[in-house]
Queue: 3 jobs
Job 1
Amino acid sequence: MGDTLLIIAPEKFRDEELFDTKSVLEESGFVTVIASKTAGVKKGMMGATAKAEISLGKVDVNDYKAIIFIGGPGASFYFENAAALNIARESIKNNKILAAICIAPIILGNAGVLVGKNVTCWDDPFRTYSKKLKAKGAKYTGKEIETDGRIITANGPEASKLFGKAIVDALNN
C-alpha cells in the first residue's frame, strides 16, 4: 500500500488539486495511492487523466497514514456516498490524518466528523458550501488552509501546494 490515499471523483475531479497535492507528497518522500468509485482511468475537469489503483469498496483506512479527498465538481458524487462517508468516519476513529480540498469538505461534514472543528472550503457567491458545513456543526473560517487537529481542509486549486505541504507537516509530526 502507500502512505497516503488520494480519493478522486469518477469524473470531473479538479486536476491541480490532485496533481499538485500528489507531487508535494511524493517530493517529500511519501508514497501515494489514488482511489475512486472504481479502479481505472478517470478524467479531471481540465482534461487530465489519472489512474485510480483501488476502488472505494476495497479501501482499508488502516493501510494509510492520511486519507485525502480531492475536490472539483465531481466530488459531489461522494456527498452522500456510503463508502466515502464510512472512510471519513473510520479515518477519524483510527486517528488518521483526514484532509479535503475545494468542495470535498462537505463529505467530511456529512460524515459527521467536523462538529466543532475549524474548517474551510471553496465557496460560491451564495455561500452554499460554507452554509452546508455550518449546518453540520463545523466552524467555517474562510481561510485558504485550515488545520484542526488531524483534519486539514483547503479552499480550492490555488491552495493545492499549500494543502500538500500541510499534509506533509502533519505526517511528519
Job 2
Amino acid sequence: MAGSREPWLGRTLRVVTRQSRLAMSQTQQVVDRIRQQYPEITIEIIPVQSEGDVVLDQPLAKIGGKGLFTKALEERLLADEADLAIHSLKDMPAGLPEGLTLCAVLERADPRDAFISLKFPDVARLPSGAVVGTSSLRRQAQLLHWRPDIKTLFLRGNVETRLAKLERGEYDAIILAVAGLMRLGMGARVTESLSIDRLLPAVGQGALGLECRAADTALQQLVMPLVDKKTTAEVLAERAMNARLGGSCQTPIAGYATWDGQGVGSSGGLLTLRGLVASPDGKTVLRAEAKGASAMPEALGVAVAEALLAQGAARWIGEGV
C-alpha cells in the first residue's frame, strides 16, 4: 500500500542518523527506498555524533546504556530539527521519550552474532584462556556459559575500530553482529555465524527502526510502504518482553521471535518467542519460550517475561521489576 506524498511536496524530509560508517550506510539504504517510492520528495541526511560514539573507554552499562546512541537523534526530533531518525533496533531502549513513536520496522536481516578471528575457525576450537572482545554483557554471559575456560575483554568502538584491534593482536577473536558486517559489505570477515541456540540475539537485532514524532501522522503514512509486518510482529514481542523485564544493557538479556509464516495479523499466524536472562559471569542462564498469536505480539512478550521472572530473573535485573 502506498503512503501519502502530498504533505511532503515542496518540503524537505530531514533524516537524522549517527555519523558512524555503519549508521550512514544503513540510513542511505533506507533513504534510497524512500526515494524509490517517492522520487519527487527532497530528502536531507543529518549526521550527528551521539554520546555513545564519543565515550569509548567505558562499558555502556556504566555510562547510561543504549540510550546514549539514540538520545542525540531524539533531541533533534523533539526540537523539530529533524523529522525521521533511523536506528539499529537493538540500540533502542525499551521505552521511548514522550512524544516519539516507532513508526516503521523494516525487514530483518541476519539476526545472528558473528565470531571473527584471524587464528581460529570457530568458538569451539578456541584454546583455553583465549581472549574474546565484546562490548555486550549478553554476548559475554552466553559465551562464558558455553566456554567458561575463555576470557572476555571489554571492546568498544565502531566496526572498523574493533576489527583493527583484532588485527593488532589485542584479542584472539571478537564478536560482532552479522547484519552490520553485511550492510558494510564485510560479510567475508565473518569466521563463524553463531547459532541462535548458542548465542540468542539481542532484542531487535538485525532490524532497522524508524522513529518520528507521534503527532506526525503525515510522515507515519509516508513510510508505511517500508513496514515489514512479519518483522514488526516479531520485534514488538521482543521489545514487550524487554520492557516488562525492565531490561537495559546493564543486564544480559536476549530475545528472539520468529513467525510461522501463516499470515501475520491473522488468527492462524503464530509467533514463537525465546527469551533469556543471565548472570554476567554466565554461571546462571534462565530461559523461557512461548507461542502466541501474531496479532497480539505484546501479550506474548509479557508472557515470556513473566516466565523468566518466575524463575528468579529479577535477581539479575535489579529492583523495581
Job 3
Amino acid sequence: MIKENIPLVVLFRALNCLSDKHILSRICFDCPDDTEMKEALRPSLELAKMIDTQEDALDYIAKRGAAQAYTKEKRIIYAKLLLETEFLPHVSTMPDGIYKKSFFLGYMANKLVKASLGKISEDDRDYYGKKRLDMAGSLLGNHFRQLFRNFTDIMTKILKRDIDNGHDKILL
C-alpha cells in the first residue's frame, strides 16, 4: 500500500519512538555501548532529522501511499490504520500493539545491522528447522474441505436449474 521505501527512523518515529536515543535503545538493546552499530545507524538518523514528531512521520508515510490527496488529519488516520493492521500483523493488530511492534522492529534491525557488520552470520532461509511444515492429515483435510465445498456448490446449481425447469427427475 506504500509505493516508496520508508526510512527505518521514520518508521520508528511513527511507532512513537521519537528521540534518537529511544530508537537506538530499541535497536542496540543487547549492547548499548557498541559504537560500531551506532555508527552504522548514523546515516539513517541523519536522513530523518527533518521528521521529529509522530504526526510528521505518519504524514510522511501516508503521502507515499494511497492517501496523497487527503487532508493532513485524514492522512495521519490512514497511516495509523496501516501501521495497526497491515504492518507486522503477526505481532498485533490492536491499537495498543504499536509498542510491541517497535520492539520487534528493533529486534529485526539489530539482527540486520549485526549481520551487515559481520558480528553474526546470516540466517539460512533454506534450513528446515526454520520452515513451517504442514502434516499430511491437515493437508488432506483442507483438500477434502475444498473439494466438498465445490461439490455442494455444483449440486446446488444443478438442483436449482432442474427445479426451475420443472423436471421430475434429476439430470446429472
